Amino acid sequence: MQQGTLMRKVKSKSWKKQRYFKLQEDCMTIWYQSKRTGKTESAFSISDVETVREGHQSEVLQSVAEEFPPERCFTIVFYGRRGNLDLVAGSAEEAQCWVQGLRQLIEVLPLTFALVSCTWIRDWFQKADKNKDGRMNFKEVQRLLKMMNVDMNEDHALRLFQDADKSESGTLEGEEFVLFYKALTQREEVLSLFQEYSEDGKKLTLLELADFLREEQLEDEGTEELAMELIDKYEPSETARARHVLSADGFLMYLCSLEGSIFNPQHRGLWQDMSQPLCHYFISSSHNTYLIEDQIRGHSSIEGYIRALKRGCRCLEVDCWDGPNGEPMVYHGHTFTSKIPFREVVSTLGKTSWGNSSSPLPSMGMSPASSHPQRYGHSTAVQGIPVLPESVARSQGASLSPTPQELKHKILLKGKKIGRLEDTLDGPGDEAPDVSDDDNGAEAEEERRRAKVKGTQHGSALQKDKETLAQALSDCVIYCKNVPFRGFQEARSHSRPSEISSLSEAKARKLIRDEGNEFVRHNAWQLTRIYPSGMRTDSSNYSPQEMWNVGCQIVALNFQTAGLEMDLCDGLFSQNGCCGYVLKPPFMRDKETLFNPSDPSSREGPGPITLTIQVISGQQLPKVANSKEGAIIDPLVRVEIYGVPADQAHQETKYIENNGFNPRWDETLQFQLHVPELALIRFVVEDYDKTSRNDFVGQFTLPFANIKPGYRHIHLLSKDGTSIPPSSLFVHIRITE
């Protein structure tokens, strides 16, 4: 990789050009240049790379699959909205060299806070060193401070510069710049906390650290063992480690680590019971997954599926329509969205469904085209998609309420079904076949319109094909038979746990308002899917929180649209190993529950709790996108609570003028939570503007149940949910009943 490799950069079927790629000596940067001109086209940092996919795992590489074998192809996927980089190596060996090399570099990058700091220092040095001589004069340092969101008095900046210039050369290089950076990033608030527990002010002994963990971090078990682990893991000095003491540098590294994060590290892995019925979980769900833009003229792409699955989504939508030569196509019917072949979607799902999670895909919404049943009923099995067929369900003695544990590595189809699940498993009874309706509202209307058009086009000649198709598809619909919703009483009398109803956001809101408790009870035994209004042609989102408040499991959102709603979704599903399943609270799993989100007192359990948040400081906050050169942000922090109506609240700090580098607020915000089990806490940093709307800087959202009390860092995310190290907030959390 450091010697350089000639590869083809592919943008389309007709754009395939050779470029020379090389990993730089810092093992952090890759640049590439045109073979023809020799001009360097672009460069990117390893820290910008989210993942590397092998083979034809992008829309572009699938379009050239006949020309280039999969073993020579790979895709570099970047964080955020930057486009993929699709490459074809000269040989399978070269491709493997880059794939494995990149993966190793990505893996070692986030290991320690020290590495993040080193990367940060190196990146800033390279940005500020205008003449690329490896040294930095005072003028370049002043420019650097502006770039880093620091508005510093010139005399103070010169004093820091001169203190770091040990060689007295008038420039900083190598270790001198590191000294300057450390002086710049001195954390007084952390140092004073350290000295509060350190007898000599220079180190924390094992017992002193254990006292801090017990009294401040509220670690109640094995504090001395934990203290020893933290010293071994975060103390940079070998001598100090041997003496079982923690220096101020080690203390800061611990506080900035995952163990010092506000998010409980024990909840990052799979920690919840996965043996409950499907209807007892919130399930990460997307709407019109194939779209990556708007709903009318947007681009349909397999990237929509790949991105959603990588994000932990476990419920996808596939809308199939007849295409040319009878080949089914996926797109948003009766609109101008582009189309993708159904076989490409199936192939993609087969390769990527289980990358992040073995949890079932419980409801892959399929609206199949009318003809060629063999292409639908069986293509999934042929291409390796593990759809759960009725024969397997029968042989496994499947229950009417299967669990995620029982359905691992399986895809469940949601759709119409002939008859009942009991008939499928036990053989037909005496009842006449019951063919379920499709979704209510806009989706049902679309289905009726399509059926009418198809009927006039095909006539009776294809009636037999349609019947065969209906049966073939029906046999694949096991646990998610789609039924119309005709009221809670009707559902209790006639519906079954293996069935699911789809409601528009407007219909769901009316039910929440009029029959909140009945809605919660209904969702304790049957699945409900909520979908966005047809008026949201711009792919905007509704608030998922109000739907979760009544226990709706499949709350479908437009994953391609960043913003508050997706922050809440990412926040809820960031726990439990990011498997896409979160167990509902006990009072929402009881069919006879009295809980109604509009009346918090109806919840059984202890009374309200008080959440007290001291917002202490911020670290190296990013600049606002598209801001003027030299502009420095005026940051404020707003804490927002999302949950039942009585808990909805927000408070904010004052703004700090001209300091995005190390602002200090030292302000305390306090909230009362009546139903903490449903509460999500969102920390937002904004750039204050007195004449217009504040600009977004960063955010972090997590469920209240995952909060760790004590002194904690909050590692901020960008608008599209990607990390922006080392930007963070330093807070103190206290929870009292």
TrEMBL record:
Keywords, alphabetical: Calcium, Cytoplasm, Endoplasmic reticulum, Hydrolase, Lipid degradation, Lipid metabolism, Membrane, Metal-binding, Nucleus, Repeat, Transducer
Cellular localisation: Cytoplasm; Endoplasmic reticulum; Membrane; Nucleus
Main localization, broad class: cytoplasm
Top-level taxon: Eukaryota
GO CC annotation terms, alphabetical: endoplasmic reticulum; nucleus; plasma membrane
Limits of the EF-hand domain: 116-151, 152-187
Catalysed reactions, semicolon-separated: a 1,2-diacyl-sn-glycero-3-phospho-(1D-myo-inositol-4,5-bisphosphate) + H2O = 1D-myo-inositol 1,4,5-trisphosphate + a 1,2-diacyl-sn-glycerol + H(+); a 1,2-diacyl-sn-glycero-3-phospho-(1D-myo-inositol) + H2O = 1D-myo-inositol 1-phosphate + a 1,2-diacyl-sn-glycerol + H(+)
Cofactor(s) in the UniProt record: Ca(2+)
Topology of the protein relative to the lipid bilayer: Peripheral membrane protein
Domain PH: 1-107
Ranges of biased composition (kind: Low complexity): 357-371
Segments forming domain C2: 589-718
Enzyme class: hydrolase
Domain PI-PLC Y-box: 473-589
Residue ranges with Acidic residues bias: 424-445
EC number: 3.1.4.11
Cited SUPFAM superfamilies: C2 domain (Calcium/lipid-binding domain, CaLB) (SSF49562), EF-hand (SSF47473), PH domain-like (SSF50729), PLC-like phosphodiesterases (SSF51695)
Pfam families noted in UniProt: C2 (PF00168), EF-hand_5 (PF13202), EF-hand_like (PF09279), PH (PF00169), PI-PLC-X (PF00388), PI-PLC-Y (PF00387)
Gene3D superfamilies, per the entry: C2 domain, EF-hand, Phosphatidylinositol (PI) phosphodiesterase, Pleckstrin-homology domain (PH domain)/Phosphotyrosine-binding domain (PTB)
Region (Disordered): 353-377, 419-462
Protein name: Phosphoinositide phospholipase C
Annotated source species: Calcarius ornatus (Chestnut-collared longspur)
